[in-house]
Amino acid sequence: MVRMTRTPLTPDEVAADPIGLDAMLSDDERAVRDRVRAFVDTELRPHLAEWYENAVLPRELLPAFGELGVLGMMLAGDGLPGRSAVEYGLAAAELEAADSGLRTVVSVQGSLAMTAIHTFGTDDQKAQHLTGMAAGHIVGCFGLTEPNAGSDPGSMTTYARRDGDDWVLTGAKRWIGLASIADIAVVWAQTDDGIRGFIVPTDAPGFTATPITAKLSMRASVQCDLTFDDVRLPADALLPGARGLSGPFTCLNSARYGIVWGAMGAARDSLEAARRYALDRVAFERPIAAAQLTQAKLADMTVQVSTGTLLALHLGRLKDQGLLQPHQISIGKLNNVRTAVAVAQSARTILGGNGITGDYSPMRHAQNLESVRTYEGTDEVHALVIGSALTGLPAFR
């Protein structure tokens, strides 16, 4: 029996792939990841600190994301990317390794607005919007959350009433991503027939989007308050395939799946920033990477990122087989975002005082992840989704 001798891995090689993830991916999957990573390194990273500091989201990123092929990535059809769930997950991780706000742009456009139209719209609605949205030439947003109806969307008060053949929309939404730069809004509203979805042109009279500016998190992105003051919509604004909360929840589950991967991108980037700093920073006549406490932190973070990434890959394989269940998405979102917050905070401690500056990513990631932890379902909501699946007893009320 011939034994193969393997060349020992360098520290950089171990850090880049501590658990051998590359061997678990196909050539196509690695190609998607590497293409998005190269885009992030050349087009996004040089500007991240400036965009975050100045609370800027350049609208021209949308066409760039469209050319990259990450808008509506899991949707199939003419002019749509039609990629796998794992490929989308890998792309989401690379985008959030840059900034959570930038991954959120892709999620709002693709997983929320485009998924709503693709899943519940008519052929005419799909033809009118989806190709342009995939290219980033049409920007969409998704109006579900309200000032007093976040975790309980069934209590929304936005209302659409019939007036002849038209609909008239009144009410308000809050924390709506991309709304002030969007061309259309997918808005969910109460009607006499239950909760329904509508495609609303943002230039319609009575539609107002006001950016929320006093943010300590997600600064390189746009979230808005929306108001609808008797916005008149034609009959064909209705998304006919969606009735009740199952419509928006279908879109939310697509977005939550992306978060499972994206959070690990932010965690991985935080870990790598801390590792590089620890190797360069000298204290007491040696790199701080040689200190036991620092190595223990790096090891613990590596284990956390590795296990979270394996969970994301497993859920992606299930999704590609059509087997992924809502409670499994909740397990992934709850675990991976909670893990990413802890990793980013631990990484910041290795950076010492320098870690509070915009020169290093962990504190920015930690602040962004506080938003990611809240949106698309808080920790408490996902814990109750899991608890309900385990017991058969819903505990939301």
Spatial separation of the terminal alpha carbons: 64 Å
* Spatial strand sequence of the major β-sheet: 1-4-5-8
Fold-level CATH name of the largest domain:
Butyryl-CoA Dehydrogenase, subunit A, domain 3
Cα Rg: 22 Å
- What does the largest sheet look like? 4 strands, mixed
CATH architecture of the largest domain: Up-down Bundle
State the helix count: 12
CATH C-level of the largest domain: Mainly Alpha
In CATH, the homologous superfamily of the largest domain goes by the name Butyryl-CoA Dehydrogenase, subunit A, domain 3
Average of pLDDT: 96
Overall number of domains: 3
Q: Please give the share of residues in helix.
A: 40-55%
Order of helices and strands: HHHHHHHEEEEEEEEHEEHHHH
What is the beta-strand fraction?
5-15%
Number of β-strand runs = 10
> Which structural class fits the helix and strand makeup?
alpha+beta
Which residues sit in consecutive blocks of at least 5 with pLDDT less than 50?
Answer: none
Shape: globular
